[in-house]
Fold this protein.
Amino acid sequence: MSATDSSWDWFEADLPWRVHRGLADTYAHHGATLPLGELFFALTALVLTLAHACEHGRRHVVVWISALISGTANDIFFMVLPFVDNFWHAQCSLMLTPRLPAYIPCVYICFMYIGTVSAWRLHLSALPTAAATGLTAAIYYAPYDLVGAKFLWWTWHDTDAAVAERWLGVPIGSTMWTLVHCTCFSLVVHWAAGLSTASHPGGGEKPMSKSGFLGTILATAIVTTPFMMVAMGPFQLHQTVLSFDAPSGLLPFTIEQMPGRPDPIAIALVLITLLTTLEVGLVRERGKPPSLGWLKPDRTYDTLLFATVVVHFTFFVAAMAFGEPEHIVATGVHQEFGQCHVEGHDLSNFPRFEFLCADDYDEDFDFGCPTAAARNLEVVRPPGFGVPDFKWGSEGPQTWYTVCGREHTRHWLYIMAQVCFAVAGTLLYQMMLLGPRSVNPKSERHIQ
């Protein structure tokens, strides 16, 4: 059954996927980068960040759980919507569904939890704290995004407007999503968890009620993604196309094109907004009592969290420097392969081609797979591949097939990008987790 048979099918029922492939099989197809990445994110999320959250009490634990639930829900939400559906994860060592690796919820915990609680250490009010969260989470996520795109940890839709504009293979829309999504998540947590009123009149932290705990989880799961979708709009208003030739109703114009194509102008506006918000907050609140007066971090656990951030950046620099993308053989779910140039439309009514066309695509992979045979790896060819003037009939489009990585062409540029993210990210997290603003000696710590 094709995924197009039902608009809400997010994978076919008869795909030859396995829940457990094992690290050895993942290594054979993807080299060392992907299985090591899976292990790293699992260890960071399920051991290190969880220990950090438990040590600091319910308000940290609720961020950890909310990041897990709302982040995973966001991933599934955009897989299920047929007019979005523009990314496909690789088959990994442990899969929850044919399209959702088990390590992905761990990734959400890592960049959303670490970004959020690190920004808390600045002791600012809601808006600058949210801006700091978006910026720090994005700089944590960017090296992962860069390696994932190059080493086929996932593949992107070839012509979808939301992922069309790219930097070094990474969609601007992905980076912009990280910035805005984590900013919105921080604001929802701040409101739902009552962070501004969590200080006890006598000093220390008020206990967080069970209803407040559960309410925060529910609010982040329901509100964060729609909030993010709305918040992305104003930064893309320059893309709106109006027609005054055919007025509609009370308006003297009709909207021919809605915004929805993240581009350099849009992400520049996001960065300017967040940086300005953070800078204004730092200036206006300098010398004032800390907005999060209840927060007194444990220096030992914050140092441990900072160490995991350093390992994170180091790993992705090494992955880019020493990984060999040309040996990757990625068999799994990808954009539907079918008849060329069949036009459809995305969420914002931008045109896109429904199917991947082997004769006309612009992605950093190919179908040749010259190293697969020597390593006895199966290559799944989609119907009609390599057949001149193939006529599509009963075969229908296919989502399960093999793509293979390409050798680096600007290797030095990718490495330099990773090094820049590593240096900037390390300094930023060091300032937040271990800097002078991270200490609040006037508060008494209260752990539930």
User: Anything to note?
Assistant: The first helix runs from residue 23 to 30.
